[in-house]
Design goal:
Order of helices and strands of chain A: HHEHEEHEHHHHH
CATH superfamily of the largest domain in chain B: Multidrug efflux transporter AcrB transmembrane domain
Largest sheet of chain B: 5 strands, antiparallel
Oligomer: heterodimer
Number of helices of chain A: 9
Largest interface: A-B, 74 and 75 residues
Number of strands of chain A: 4
Distance between the termini of chain A: 44 Å
Distance between the termini of chain B: 21 Å
CATH class of the largest domain in chain B: Mainly Alpha
Strand content of chain A: 5-15%
CATH topology of the largest domain in chain A: Multidrug efflux transporter AcrB transmembrane fold
Largest sheet of chain A: 4 strands, antiparallel
Shape of chain B: elongated
CATH superfamily of the largest domain in chain A: Multidrug efflux transporter AcrB transmembrane domain
Strand order of the largest sheet of chain A: 2-3-1-4
Number of strands of chain B: 18
Shape of chain A: elongated
Number of domains of chain B: 3
Radius of gyration of chain B: 35 Å
Structural class of chain B: alpha+beta
Structural class of chain A: alpha+beta
Number of helices of chain B: 14
CATH topology of the largest domain in chain B: Multidrug efflux transporter AcrB transmembrane fold
CATH class of the largest domain in chain A: Mainly Alpha
Helix content of chain B: 40-55%
Chain lengths: 327, 537
């Protein structure tokens, strides 16, 4: 079976559409992030890992009544708690509820949150609740939250820098730059999706974003490798033609691999449970965007850069023929 | 031209056998449950999968510094007295700067004598300054302070380990965490009832015996009034239970000398017992050095009161009846549990400083079990979909890819078994992602072979060229992914680290399976081809 046999698409001819598409999603993401920024002081809703606070997942014996739980919290004077039911994608309902308290300003009161919540639930909602009903407790103090935030940011930066250096060493600097711009584009849009859909970014989501950077880089490298190979073979061909041909030659692989990875990630999203929800969501979005960006962002950047150098009268660095002047 | 593949096939089978051993070890039986049992024994599950508690604590090292300077202040006073040099007071002027000691009001003209004592005995640990206005200031050297802080954290780790060991938790992790912020990571698999554990770990049980200046008072105002409105720098105000003998809970306040006569690390042994009055008590023995100090103090202060301070509260006040050297008992309104716990803590050593919790995560065993179930379901569904697709799309070569993928998973899991690396829920996600990304190598190779076949190459040449061209790309893609996984490993914590581990080893194994193993299978297939027949791809 073969899906793509001798495809011949002029990808670079569609660069304005690509640019438009990327801009729409990037800007939508940025707008949504600034709205979040204005409201909560961070561009995306942060999970308890980063924002600090108490989060407790309780499994009730029967299907829980969110309003009654809220009343129980109010009756015990617990303010600013957020209560949300959680269930798997493949479940219609579940008995699990996630109750969060906002950040405590000092570490010594960290422990109080969990006790308060359980006491409130026992006193005003269901007196049979015990430790066996507590599925998960996360209490993060402000110090650790800030540390993690810094670490996550640094990890993302280092990861991109590491790849830039590797590509510089294996190809040329411009390839590295183009690939990193594509990765940045993917990260921006993926994080933008979290802002748009109002989902929390947790530590595992950061792991997913780093994976996605690696994955998007993979895709880009496959195309770049082919461009490099074709440049060696046909030095007389114009760069845009070489790039188009390289994309077309690798298209079948690109679509297959992305498709297969997408299948595995989708199965993770559907069956992997709620703990990994954010993680698999980031990958589901990221794999689509990552595949798109290697064709629509990274490769056109190589050509655009070449054109820019040519227009300045500088030497071409990518050894293909100059583009014939039109007219 | 047929290639001899026996050596290579033998290598592949050997690898397969070794890593299957890595997964199962030597199973107790061949039934499903016996195999499952041996897997769980071989592969470490992270806290998020087996349930348990993850704590990050911070050691309040400033307290250890303060205790050290308290002790030094006491020694300075003794030294000055021994040298018959008068002074008005040796104090720590600023509670916020526990590393500073001030010697104030020394006799005019004796500054040089005082200086030479301070220089000869304290200049290793302290920077001595002043002297012009009959005052000296000693500031602990930063290097000494750092070493002390480091030692304090190490001591705290050892103490926590001793205490956790008494709980019988299997394979706890207790180690320094973060970069120089005096943090400790404690991981307790299988522990769900955190309250008991936390109070056990956190109990500073800094048992100290302080001379009593005044008290008991009914409240803080009365206590303050007794010292003229403000507590002098060398004294402190501490709460205690009202009538200690009767065990009433009423508040009472004492004014004590800040410098203890006996402190936490001075105890050699401690056992629970019953006193002459029939009350529960803790019998303790002091170290020789502390015994001498205690004897010196008690012999000179017969009839005066001493307070036993535990966990920041006065637990007992006793009058010194006669000189005590190295053994004594602490009697009070203790419960049996308290006496047991107190003895245990004195034996295992008190924490050198108190701890605060920065983070605490508990995963219930039921959520862990659900996570395993969900993770495994997702993995199985993912693998089956991918394998099925490869079979349909690449026909004969699909079998090749599927075998390689299977071996990839075996090596990855076997490696987890051998290395003792921890499998976390994100780690399972890493396994699933390895399936998707691992199959990429096969796709790259197969697509390339198809291209070569299309270009009219003979089967063996097409396979040869396909592998050669794809190899370059595969190296580049693997290296970049491993770079990002390595950075995750360096920066991530617990579960996320587990993800980096499985992804890295999955991809490393993939280099072997998708390139070497696949190649051998292709060669075997080529050996069987009749002249003119095409590769099934």
């Amino acid at each position: 079976m073969e899906l793509f046999r001798s495809v011949n698409v002029d990808w670079l001819g569609k660069k304005w559409y690509f640019l438009g598409f990327s801009l729409i999603f990037s800007i939508a993401g940025i707008v949504s992030m600034s709205m979040h920024w204005a409201k909560i002081g961070s561009p995306v809703p942060l999970g308890v890992d980063f924002r600090g606070g108490t989060q407790i997942q309780v499994q009730f014996n029967q299907s829980p009544d969110i309003n009654k739980i809220r009343q129980a919290m109010d009756a015990s004077g617990i303010r600013d708690s957020s209560i949300q039911p959680i269930r798997n994608v493949d479940q219609a309902s579940s008995n699990d509820v996630l109750i969060s308290l906002p950040e405590q300003t000092n570490e010594s009161s960290l422990d109080a949150g969990r006790e308060q919540i359980m006491d409130a639930l026992r006193a005003h909602y269901d007196s049979t609740l015990g430790t066996q009903n507590i599925r998960n407790v996360t209490v993060v103090g402000p110090t650790v939250g800030r540390q993690l935030e810094k670490q996550a940011g640094l990890a993302t930066l280092y990861s991109m820098a590491g790849m830039l250096v590797y590509l510089w060493f294996r190809f040329q600097l411009i390839y590295g730059v183009a690939a990193v711009v594509a990765c940045f584009h993917d990260t921006l849009i993926t994080v933008g999706f979290f802002a748009l859909t109002n989902q929390e970014i947790s530590l595992t989501v950061i792991a997913a974003i780093l994976t996605l950077i690696g994955y998007s880089m993979n895709d880009t490298i496959v195309v770049f490798d082919r461009i490099r190979e074709n440049l060696r073979l046909s030095r007389r061909e114009a760069l845009p033609d070489v790039v188009n041909r390289s994309i077309n030659q690798t298209l079948s692989r690109t679509v297959l691999t992305s498709g297969l990875t997408f299948i595995t990630v989708l199965s993770l999203y559907v069956f992997g449970g709620q703990v990994l929800r954010g993680f698999s969501f980031a990958l589901v979005v990221g794999i689509l965007i990552g595949t798109y960006s290697s064709i629509a962002v990274a490769a056109p950047m190589l050509v655009a850069w070449q054109d820019w150098r040519a227009s300045k009268g500088k030497d071409v660095v990518l050894p293909a023929a100059k583009r014939p002047k039109v007219g | 031209m047929k290639k001899n593949l026996k050596g290579r096939i033998a290598l592949i089978i050997a690898v397969l056998v070794i890593f299957i051993y890595g997964i199962f070890g030597t199973p107790s039986g061949l039934s499903g449950s016996a195999l499952l049992g041996s897997i769980t024994k071989r592969i470490h599950l992270g806290l998020d999968l087996q349930g348990g508690a993850h704590l990050i604590l911070q050691v309040q090292v400033i307290e250890a510094v303060s205790a050290e300077t308290d002790d030094a202040a006491g020694r300075i006073q003794q030294d000055l007295k021994a040298a018959k040099l008068t002074y008005s007071q040796v104090i720590k002027p600023d509670p916020k700067k526990p590393e500073t000691i001030a010697v104030q009001g020394i006799a005019p003209g004796k500054a040089t004598d005082v200086r030479s004592i301070l220089d000869s005995k304290y200049s290793n640990e302290y920077d001595v300054s002043g002297g012009t206005d009959n005052n000296f200031t000693l500031t602990m050297k930063p290097s000494v302070e750092q070493a002390l802080e480091k030692k304090t954290v190490q001591q705290a780790i050892e103490t926590i380990r001793d205490r956790v060991d008494t709980l019988g938790v299997s394979e706890p992790v207790i180690q320094e965490y973060g970069l120089g912020d005096n943090q400790i990571l404690v991981e307790l698999p299988g522990v769900e009832d955190l309250d008991r554990v936390k109070s056990l770990i956190q109990e500073t049980a800094r048992l100290e015996i302080h001379p009593v200046v005044g008290g008991p008072f009914g409240d803080e105002q009365a206590a303050l009034a007794s010292v003229g409105g403000a507590v002098p720098p060398d004294q402190m105000m501490i709460h205690g239970s009202g009538a200690l003998a009767t065990g009433s809970d009423a508040d009472s306040v004492y004014i004590l000398q800040r410098v203890p006569v006996v402190a936490g690390s001075d105890f050699r042994s401690a056992d629970p017992g019953t006193s002459e009055n029939g009350l529960r008590d803790v019998r303790f023995t002091l170290t020789n050095e502390a015994g001498d100090k205690f004897y010196e103090y008690t012999s000179g202060n017969v009839g005066k009161a001493m307070a036993v301070v535990l966990g920041g509260r006065v637990r007992e006040v006793a009058n010194i009846k006669s000189a005590i050297r190295d053994s004594g008992e602490i009697e009070g309104s203790f419960s049996t549990d308290e006496v047991e716990a107190l003895s245990k803590m004195l034996r295992t050593g008190a924490l050198p400083a108190s701890l605060i919790y920065l983070e605490d995560r508990t995963v219930g065993a039921s959520l862990g079990a659900d996570s395993i179930k969900e993770g495994v379901t997702a993995a199985v569904v993912g693998v089956l979909l991918v394998m099925g697709f490869m079979l349909i799309y690449y026909r004969g070569s699909g079998i090749n890819a599927d075998l390689a993928l299977f071996l990839n998973l075996v090596i990855l899991l076997g490696f987890m078994g051998f290395s003792g690396a921890t499998l976390t829920l994100p780690g399972i996600a890493g396994v699933i992602l390895t399936i998707g990304m691992g199959v990429d190598s096969n796709v790259l190779i197969f697509e390339r072979i198809r291209e070569e076949v299309r270009a009219g190459k003979a089967p063996s040449a097409a396979v040869e060229q396909g592998f050669a061209h794809a190899w370059v790309t595969i190296i580049d893609t693997h290296v970049t992914t491993i770079v990002s996984a390595a950075i995750l490993f360096l920066f991530g914590t617990g579960p996320v680290k587990g993800f980096a581990v499985t992804l890295t080893f999955g991809l490393a194994a993939n280099l072997f399976t998708a390139v070497y193993v696949s190649r051998v299978i292709f060669e075997a297939h080529l050996n069987k081809l009749q002249p003119g027949e095409l590769v099934s791809i």
